[in-house]
């Protein structure tokens, strides 16, 4: 089946789990402002839009900046005031031989499969891409990615990223992972998604059954605070682990959210208890609009 036909069939066939969202029209009520929002917020949202799952919103204790979950995803006017950051501090664009394919190291490459996310995390290191508003790679770009990898035998690992690749449909993921597995020198596939944290209902038995077919496949997620470890999140992680897929966590050190010994200890111990490997603790990248999250070395 061609890629174009596959995408059409994906829309026609089995329904995906429903993920409900709050969007920009809901922001005023979430932050206690009258509608319409003040002009400063309109400027902010034009530059850095807003989206959050209803599930993640339900985890807030209080809808204010003192709540560490609120701070991760609710727009803050400080994003316009922050200076010193860059749009692309990791110079990803410099290492893109093709659109949305990053080849920085000889033995691996990273594919930005979509700019769509379940939640626009305010500390995101690809914040510059948000203006593209839910962009998904066209078929010709995806085919070019696959040809590029197939033509380079040194590439042994492919990282599937975004946005969040699990916003893509099951049938498309099945097709794409199958095509990657047909490239013999691709030994390992790595998938990065916050779905277990912000949209655990997306981690279905059908999805994990698809991922299981393409092992060795590694799954990296991002829990940043112990309150994100809910029963729903535990069940989602257990489905991934039970499919024989190693599950690792990549936290980001964020000021006012997890830059505290007791908070971080509770997070890492909680991850271990549910079988998720605490893998990385990243220092927040110097991305434009994220300075209020930076922790002094």
Task: Give an account of the 3D structure.
By secondary structure, the chain is an alpha/beta fold. The protein has one domain: Aldolase class I (TIM Barrel, Alpha-Beta Barrel), CATH 3.20.20. 33% of the residues lie in helices and 14% in strands. The chain contains twelve helices and nine strands. The strands form two sheets. It has a seven-stranded mixed sheet with strand order 3-4-5-6-7-8-9. Helix 1 runs antiparallel to helix 8 and helix 8 runs parallel beside helix 10. The protein is globular, with a radius of gyration of 19 Å.
Summarize the structure.
By secondary structure, the protein is an alpha/beta fold.
């Amino acid at each position: 089946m061609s890629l174009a036909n596959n995408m059409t069939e994906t829309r026609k066939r089995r329904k995906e789990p429903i993920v409900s969202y709050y969007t920009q029209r809901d922001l005023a009520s979430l932050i206690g402002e009258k509608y319409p929002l003040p002009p400063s917020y309109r400027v902010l949202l034009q530059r850095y839009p807003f989206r959050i799952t209803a599930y993640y919103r339900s985890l807030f204790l209080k809808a204010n900046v003192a709540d560490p979950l609120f701070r991760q995803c609710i727009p803050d006017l400080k994003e316009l005031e922050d200076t010193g950051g860059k749009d692309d501090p990791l110079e990803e664009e410099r290492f893109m031989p093709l659109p949305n394919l990053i080849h920085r190291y000889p033995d691996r490459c990273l594919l930005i499969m979509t700019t769509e996310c379940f939640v626009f995390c305010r500390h995101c290191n690809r914040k510059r891409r948000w203006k593209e508003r839910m962009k998904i790679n066209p078929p010709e770009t995806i085919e070019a990615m696959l040809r590029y990898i197939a033509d380079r035998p040194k590439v042994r690992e492919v990282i599937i990223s975004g946005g969040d690749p699990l916003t893509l449909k099951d049938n498309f993921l099945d097709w794409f992972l199958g095509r990657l597995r047909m490239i013999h020198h691709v030994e390992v596939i790595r998938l990065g998604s916050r779905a277990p944290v912000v949209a655990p209902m997306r981690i279905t038995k059908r999805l994990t059954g698809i991922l299981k077919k393409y092992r060795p496949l590694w799954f990296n997620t991002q829990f940043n605070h112990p309150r994100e470890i809910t029963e729903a999140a535990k069940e989602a992680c257990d489905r991934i682990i039970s499919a024989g897929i190693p599950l690792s966590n990549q936290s980001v050190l964020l000021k006012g959210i997890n830059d505290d010994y007791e908070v971080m200890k509770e997070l890492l111990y909680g991850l271990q208890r549910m079988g998720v490997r605490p893998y990385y603790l990243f220092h927040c990248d110097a991305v434009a609009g994220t300075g209020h999250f930076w922790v002094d070395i």
